[in-house]
Amino acid sequence: MNDKSTYKADLVGTDATTDIALLKINAKLQLPFLFFGNSDSIQLGEWVMAVGNPFNLESTVTAGIVSAKGRSINILEDAYAIESFIQTDAVVNPGNSGGALVDATGKLIGINAAIVTQTGAYEGYSFAIPINLASRIVDDIIKYGKSQRAALGVSIADVDAELAKDEKLSVTQGVYVSSVIDGESAQFAGVIAGDVI
Description:
Elements: E1 9-15, E2 20-25, E3 47-52, E4 60-71, E5 85-88, E6 100-103, E7 108-115, E8 126-130, H1 131-144, E9 154-158, H2 161-166, E10 175-180, H3 185-188
Antiparallel strand pairs: 1-2, 3-4, 3-6, 4-5, 5-8, 6-7, 7-8, 9-10
């Protein structure tokens, strides 16, 4: 903690598909906490602050704006990974992961998780797990011991000009259904391979 006190933490549960872990600390004193904001309602260009301990520099705060929402950077290797990061230009470096991303009112809107870099240090973009997603995962871990997730039963790809040309599609935007798993929900709903959603 900031006052140099340490606590033993018990691992309650993890979710590899979102890179979230829930820890429980038994402390005699009331620990400081943040109120949750609504990560769904943040706007592009909104000011945010990232808090963490980059390079072991304790309690460092940086500021930036929300650059994008719903960003996938393909860092989670799980087939069912959920990447819907908040992208910011707030400076984040190794040691910031797990730290708070807060809005201008000090409410928690994300958990700093990643940077895209060629050098190992910040190069202009940082990514945070939206708190609305994290809180759903945490609630599931508390209630069920693991996250609960529905599966559509499809493999998908983003439609772009190249895929549209290869598959002879009449559109260049959307989600292309490359395959449907037998006996899963999408098949029962009538989705077939080659559909564009």
